[in-house]
Each structure stands twice: as structure tokens, then as C-alpha cells.
Amino acid sequence: MPDHRGMTAKVRARAVLVVVATLAVVGVGSVMVLRASAEQPAAAQVPAYAHDMAAMRPGSAAAGDIGGAGPVTELDKTFLVKVRQAGLWEMPAGDLAQTHASSEAVKRAGLHLLDGHSHLDQLVREDAKMLGVTLPDQASAEQQGWVRQLTAAQGLEFDKLFVNLLRASHGKIFATIAEVRAGTRNDVIRRHARQANQTVLDHMEVLEDTGLVDEKTLADVAAAVNPPPK
Ligand SMILES: [Fe+2]
């Protein structure tokens, strides 16, 4: 029969083993937690956008893809250029509305242009960089001409010019966005088209809310986006 002292020694030995085993588990766990913590900031630095793309096409990097997002067509590239150029004339136009317009609804439309294109311009520059597309840093000559016309106008004349120039250009790019969104095979372009679609729709609506859109403007847009067969 083991004596009391012998039992105590065995119990102590078991206790020591348990403590050592527990410390070992805790130690490994701590290392794992520390590693996870160390990796967290790096994961957090990946743009939210990349997560969206990964969710849409996991492991889909094919030949010619950029980041596995799918091939980029000339139409896709032109679309990004058009979005950039839209912002480059609509933001000055939105600014002008605050000082040249007589209608509060026109000033409100101008604020929507400023807000929408500030956001979209940031996005288009990020997306173009991701896809290796070079963007212009100036609006087109025609768009710059529109800004000059608006700068020279005041009051009701400004209101009408502003609303009709902008409603016409938004109507035309709205059709381009649909064409791009329908046919693109690139996830970045799909996401960009969705954002641009929402922004352009909002701008068309605030412009129409002014009550100043001419029938002729709508007829011109209709003819441009759906030309009659020859
Ligand atoms: Fe716009």
C-alpha cells in the first residue's frame, strides 16, 4: 500500500505535468494569436474593392486578365475616359450654378453634380490605375466650350442652358453605360458601370426636377442613342 508521502509526490508530479502542458497550449495559442494580429493590418490594407473582386471571381486569373478581373476592351477603356471627362466639366458647371443660377432647383442640381462627380472621379482614377488605363486630365474641347458658355450666362439664361446641356450629355452617356454594363467581361468595369449608372440617373432626375428640360433636348438625345435606320 503506497504511503501518504508517495501519493503526494505522484499528485505533485501530475500537477506539474498538467501545468507544463497547459502552458505549452497557451504558448502555442498566444503565438497563433500574435501571428494573426500581425497579419491583420496587412489584410486591412487591401482595398475593399479587391475583396469585392475576389468574391465575384475567386481564383479566376486567366491569360490577359489584370488581377483576375477579366479582359478589358477598348469600349471599357473609353467608358472610363468618358466618366473622367464628365467629371472634369460637370464639377466646374456645378460650381457655376451656385453663383450664376437664378433657380434654387438649378443650384440643387449643381450640388448633385459636385457631390456625385467628386465621388465618381475618385473611383474612376482608382479603377483606371488598377486596369492600367491612362485617363485625360482635361475635359474634351466640346465640354470646355460648354463651360465657357455657362460662364458667360446669368440668371434664367444660365438655368436653361445648364439644364439642357447637362440633360443632353447625361442622356447620351446613360446609353453608353448600359452598353458597357451589358457586354463587359471585366468585374472592375461592371462595378464601375453600376456606380456611374446610379450617379447619372440621379443627375438626370435633378435636372428634370427643374422643369426646364426642352422637348428638343430629349428629341436630340433619342436620335443620338437610337438613330433611325438609313
Ligand atoms: Fe453627371
Explain how this protein is built:
With 230 residues, the protein is an all-alpha fold. Helices cover 78% and strands 0% of the residues. The longest helix is centred in the N-terminal third of the chain and has 42 residues, at 4-45. The termini are far apart. 28% of the residues are buried. Residues 1-9 and 15-63 have low confidence and may be disordered. Bound molecules: fe (ii) ion (FE2). Residues 86, 90, 113, 116-117, 170, 199-200, 203 line the site of fe (ii) ion.
Short recap of the structure:
It contains eight helices and no strands.
- Which CATH architecture of the largest domain would you pick? Up-down Bundle
State the CATH superfamily name of the largest domain: Ferritin, core subunit, four-helix bundle
Mean pLDDT: 80
* Class by SSE composition: mainly alpha
* Beta-strand proportion: under 5%
What separation lies between the terminal Cα atoms?
112 Å
Could you tell me which ligands this complex binds, including any ions or cofactors? fe (ii) ion
CATH class designation of the largest domain: Mainly Alpha
Which residue ranges are poorly predicted, with pLDDT under 50 across at least 5 consecutive positions?
A: 1-9, 15-63
Protein name: DUF4142 domain-containing protein
InterPro entries: DUF4142 (IPR025419)
Domain DUF4142: 76-207
